[in-house]
Amino acid sequence: KAIAERDDVRSIWLNRKLSYFIANSRQNSGVNKIQGTDFVNINGDTDYSGKGVTIMVNDSGIDATHQDLFFGDVVIDNVEAAIQSSALAKMSTTETFISRGQYNTDVNTDHGTHCAGIIAGSGAMSDGKYKGVAPDAKLVGYGSGADLTILDAVSGYDYAINHRYDYQSPLRIISNAWGSTGNFDANSPIGLASYKAYTLGILSIFSAGNSGAGKSSHNPYAQLPWVISVGAGNSHGHLVDFSSRDLSYKTGSFTMPDKQEWTYNNQVTVVAPGHYMVSTRSSNNGLAYSADDDFLFDSAYTPFYSRLSGTSIATSYTAGVAALMMEANPLLSIEEIKQLIAKSATQMLGYQAWEVGAGYIDIRAAVAAAKTHVKAYK
Fold first, then answer.
1. d(CA 175, CA 172)
2. Please, are residues 221 and 190 in contact by the beta-carbon 8 Å criterion?
3. Cα 54–Cα 195–Cα 136 angle in degrees, nearest 5
4. Residues 4, 24: Cα–Cα separation, whole Å
5. Are strands 98-99 and 171-176 parallel, antiparallel or unpaired?
């Protein structure tokens, strides 16, 4: 109570546990439409694959021994945050408790590796069949392990902000396939950290959550107005039942420490593929594939890939799409990327805007919109 009364304290938060948003459940992504001959012919001798864009996967870690995510090629920095939360309880620094240049930081779950493959996997172990959305983007893995807390997530942001210029192409996107339920509060540690990233030109993408419809089910961090909130859709263009959305539309205004006024809307920004998606599996996870659904997945690839569902998958897919847009038009602001993704999305009839936002993401339309967008200078 005494600390809360100090003028220099913005908020006080319990270091509560967060959840990764994968449900144990690939569909055709359509990415070939913007990386093939047809798109090249339409758009004047070029296609897009994420070149020049660096993305942080703020997650459980990445197995960069996987050929699709090979360290030094796809994954250019892989950080392990050992005992981060317990260490921070005693020390004021984060740098002391991380290890850079690790080949495999996804040592006890498949989550981060799967998400990384959706974003930028090379498809090397499947002859390109399970290539990621932006296979020429570069990845930075920040691994907090199976047990993720608020301090762990903020530590990932701390690393991204302090090391964004360490790479040949500066870090421009942070993919956050995790969160919680509860009420929106811009003063949360993650709210403040993601806002700092935003002011530095780093786009944050968050999972809407896997709690389905219900009061306060929408990930509160996904509601921050400077981030993109992603729900999960299936191959038929429908919202998957587990994809989080509140019971009705809500909005509110608030002021950040820099005196900038903002309005938040409790609704998903866009829906993206997140049902039965095949991607890279960690070498440490022997249970990442369910033999009960063989007909949905070529079992010849099971040593190297797994099939999962969740808004985590949709978030990773959207991070890849954002990378393609940034390559097509490097001058786009975070607001413009968010607006163009929404404007180019396909409407989902039968759903409310607070459930699915602008609708189902259209990768080809989004990249084309980015390429042709002209910034309106005052």
1. 10
2. yes
3. 10
4. 41
5. unpaired
C-alpha distances in Å from residue 278, one per residue of 117, 118, 210, 281, 313: 9, 8, 18, 9, 10
C-alpha span between 161 and 194 (Å, rounded)? 10
By three-state DSSP, how is residue 133 classified? coil
Residue with tokens 């859709």: 233
For the segment 11-68, what is each residue's pLDDT rounded down to a tens digit? 888 877 776 666 543 333 445 555 654 433 334 445 899 999 999 999 989 999 999 9
**Strand partners of residue 20:** 178
Side chain identity at residue 223, one-letter code: Q
Task: State phi, psi for 254 to the nearest 5 degrees.
Answer: -160, 165
Its pTM stands at 0.88
Structure tokens belonging to residue 350: 């039968």
* Phi, psi torsion values for 111, nearest 5 degrees: -65, -55
> What H or E segment, with its residue span, contains residue 233?
strand 227-233
Q: Do the Cβ atoms of 171 and 140 come closer than 8 Å?
A: yes
Amino acid at 112: G
The letter for the amino acid at 64 is A
pLDDT tens track for 238-276: 999 999 998 888 899 999 999 999 999 999 999 999 998
